[in-house]
Amino acid sequence: MFVEKFKFMNIKNIISVLLLLLVAQLHAQTEPFAGNWETWFIPSGKTYRLAPPPAGKAEIEEVLLLQKSLNAVDFEQIEFWNAGSTGYHWQNLMDKIWMTDALKNGILANMLLSVAVYDATVAAWDSKYYHLRKRPFETDKRIQLYTVRPESPSFPCETSVAAGAASTIIAHFFPAMKDSVERMAKRAMDSRVAAGVAFPSDTRAGFDLGKKIAEAEIERTKGFLNNTPWDGKLPERAGTWNGKFAMLPNAGTSKTVVLQSGNQFRPGPPPDFSRDMEELRNFKQTQRSMANALRFDNQDVWGELTNKKIFEYNLHLNAPRAARVYATCAIGYYEGFVATWDAKYAYWGIRPEQLDTTFQPLLGGSPPFPGYPSGHAAVGKVTADLLCYFFPADRTAIQKLAKDGAESRFQGGIHFRTDNEVALVLGEKVASAIVEKLKMDGAGPTLGFEKQKTIGKAKR
What we know:
The protein is an all-alpha fold and 460 residues long.
């Protein structure tokens, strides 16, 4: 009896040890369950699961031959694509170009790039952990590793997935750049083979997967934006905005992703701005206030901060987590924009230099749309609250930046303080709705697999 019980306990202990070893092995992997995370514009990552890859041995010689012929330019490309997460360089490119199409599809293009990269990355992770293909440098010791050792399976190549998704989005919305982004994608793909972390078939499959998902998302979001031109009509009531050109007057009725509609959190009507105008007239500029106004007017403060936090927390080495941050912030920007534009054209809030034509804003003429509430302040607050969700230890500094951003529009003379205060409340509501959705996406806390509250089984 005792012997049988002892044997039974030993078997239980052995099983426990084996389970612990399995968990430890999964901890060493990069987000082994990310393929189960909720996606935004595709049904699921599993929907796009790839067929099995070819045998790696057939491609080993191809990788070895390429590595033997590497030159200085090739190594520059390897280092370039080693930097940042898989979507980092594509996101930086989009940040530079989307405003050139601000009157048509820029805001949608910006959002779709980040979301397509995220959704495609989730799909890639489903295939990665289904097929469990070893990396080239793991398959043959002759293959050199020229980057940080990746802790995820090889097929499909995550960098190529991002390249396929991003280049497809950019080529669609900015057709003049089609050839350029296709060459950029090719360099990204070649760099991963040269670095010893992907077989050629990994990169081809990855690019095709990213492209396929981007095309599906472009189709899914057709008609999202309402860019109906302005009919030239202004409100007949006194004390409203009276510019000669109204930018995107119907954008507030565009389709939203998380919000029920652009007017879900519409604030109440603006006050009589007489007191606000008096405060603005009496405001004494300092070197610090001018610097703050110019900083937020000329720098991509929130894009730079997002990149910085991803690097500081080493999420650039975690493709699914980094893509989730970028996608969420892009959706926040889009939702915040639509919500703000709804309120702007619901009330046609007047600008300071229109209420007092003798007033000269520090930043010159105001933008060509109503002032109430401030778009800068609202979108900044949305982004700040989302970054606080991802990086809670930095909440104090991030929230200060949101307040500085709102204040910058008052300091610049193009918004009343009320515009900014109302915008901060609006931004907080929009961000809160997005965070509630994030809590249901299956990814758990942002800072790593080990902090997830529950660990599910990867779908096979």
